[in-house]
Specification:
single chain; 104 residues; alpha+beta; Beta-lactamase Inhibitory Protein, Chain:B, domain 1; 4-stranded antiparallel beta sheet; 3 helices; elongated
Amino acid sequence: MKRMRLTRPIGRMNAALRLILVLMLVLVLDGCIGKRITKANVDQVTEGMSKKQVESILGQPTSSQTENPAIMRQTTYVYRQGKDTVTIVFKDDKVQSKDSTLSN
């Protein structure tokens, strides 16, 4: 009896599965890395915006710190990208001020 070899179809299937896995990995990593901080993005952030609005533009901050005095709560978001830093201060969850060291 003659044996049939199935290496070609299996090889093609493995290549297709690898391609699908690579594409899925790229999509997952893209979501994890966050948004790129650009001058155009930072310029969209205006006084009075909520944290959610800022996060929809800039993504999650690199770090944040919340001070909770009795009268007014203040949160500072810091975004770092290489040498550049963007600092956004929220008072009562609304943008109070922003500062950046973006070069362009």
